[in-house]
């Protein structure tokens, strides 16, 4: 029951100030966030690449309130693309973007987000990499998938995220399972009403497997975004059943979570991509990580007790 409370806390300015001021917060956050500066994220990319891992980078900055912030986020991603190109890391690192950071929730947000994200996708292509559009709450799905369709006309390698807990996602999987499509499948991390999403974890898991079956049987490139050992095992079995080779799909996990499992998959010859967030706007991301898994919350509380 703590999940909804933590998700609500992620949007609370007062709780943000308390958490940010706690002496223990910084070292704990560093487990899940690569750093606040671009140079720190590049160092993390090089470290993980040296271990045989691939990465996707997310510059944190959502829930913006004006177009100027959207431009700043756009520029941060352009700087990221330039750094990947300069250091020759495009082959190991792609970029993940939340369209809310590009103005999607503002007035005229759909057009604004498309306008701001397009140069980022162009810059990614020049750096030898690509962009995946993160999915946010259910009210943004239609806009996000429409922007995806526009971007894929010029950059067909552009990827998208689908969330299994939404009722609509099986249909979206069918629509995006075609040749050249790249889909990261996750369970979902936003608090959604019962009118649009499964509320029971077992139903979310069942939906995840149904969606995974669709993607694995399709002609696209599935990206299995899960730390759940059962889902990892099921994905491996479905890949085998559909005649997929290791280069035909990949696993994705979050920075700082199940690191031993990440290395195990690499050792077995699988493609393993680590989701690396960085930037000063870490609070919302951090609180969602605590809400997703009791183990994450336990880690944080134990750190509080130890340092207290």
UniProtKB/TrEMBL annotation:
Q: Which residues cross the membrane?
A: none
UniProt enzyme class: oxidoreductase
Binding of substrate occurs at 98, 288-289
Q: In which pathway does it act?
A: Amino-acid degradation; L-proline degradation into L-glutamate; L-glutamate from L-proline: step 1/2
Record Pfam families:
Pro_dh
Check the record and name the SUPFAM superfamilies matching this protein: FAD-linked oxidoreductase
Asked if Nucleotide-binding is a keyword of the record, the answer is yes
This enzyme catalyses: L-proline + a quinone = (S)-1-pyrroline-5-carboxylate + a quinol + H(+)
Q: How is the cofactor bound?
A: Binds 1 FAD per subunit.
E.C. no? 1.5.5.2
- Gene3D superfamilies attached to this UniProt entry: 3.20.20.220
Q: Which residues form the Proline dehydrogenase domain?
A: 44-299
Cofactors: FAD
Residues at which FAD binds:
135, 163, 187-189, 201, 226-227
Which InterPro entries is this protein grouped with?
FAD-linked_oxidoreductase-like, PRODH_bac_arc, Proline_DH_dom, Proline_oxidase
What is one Gene Ontology biological process annotated in the Swiss-Prot or TrEMBL record? L-proline catabolic process to L-glutamate
Keyword entries, A-Z: FAD, Flavoprotein, Nucleotide-binding, Oxidoreductase, Proline metabolism
Instruction: List the molecular function annotations (GO) for this entry.
Output: nucleotide binding; proline dehydrogenase activity
Protein's name according to its UniProt entry:
proline dehydrogenase
Q: Which organism is it from?
A: Streptomyces glebosus
């Amino acid at each position: 029951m703590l999940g909804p409370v933590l998700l609500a806390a992620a949007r609370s300015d007062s709780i943000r100030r308390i958490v940010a001021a706690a002496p223990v917060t910084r070292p704990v956050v560093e487990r899940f966030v690569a750093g606040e500066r671009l140079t720190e994220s590049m160092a993390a990319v090089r470290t993980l690449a040296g271990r045989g891992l691939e990465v996707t980078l997310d510059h944190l900055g959502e829930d913006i309130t004006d177009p100027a912030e959207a431009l700043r986020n756009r520029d941060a991603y352009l700087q990221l693309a330039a750094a990947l190109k300069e250091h020759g890391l495009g082959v190991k690192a792609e970029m993940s973007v939340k369209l809310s950071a590009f103005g999607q929730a503002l007035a005229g947000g759909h057009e604004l987000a498309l306008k701001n994200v397009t140069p980022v996708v162009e810059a990614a292509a020049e750096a030898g990499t690509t962009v995946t559009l993160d999915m946010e709450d259910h009210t943004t799905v239609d806009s996000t998938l429409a922007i995806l369709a526009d971007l894929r006309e010029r950059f067909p390698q552009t990827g998208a995220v689908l969330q299994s807990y939404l009722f609509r996602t099986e249909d979206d999987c069918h629509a995006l399972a075609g040749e050249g499509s790249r889909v990261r499948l996750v369970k979902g991390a936003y608090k959604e009403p019962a009118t649009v999403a499964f509320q029971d974890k077992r139903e979310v898991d069942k939906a995840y497997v149904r969606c995974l079956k669709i993607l694995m049987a399709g002609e696209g490139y599935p990206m299995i975004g899960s730390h759940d050992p059962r889902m990892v095992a099921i994905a491996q079995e479905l890949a085998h059943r559909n005649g997929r080779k290791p280069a035909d799909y990949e696993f994705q996990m979050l920075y700082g979570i199940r690191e031993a499992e990440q290395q195990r998959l690499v050792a077995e010859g699988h493609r393993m991509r680590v989701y690396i967030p960085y930037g000063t706007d870490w609070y919302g991301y951090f609180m969602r990580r605590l809400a997703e898994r009791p183990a994450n919350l336990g880690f944080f509380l134990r750190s509080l007790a130890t340092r207290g």
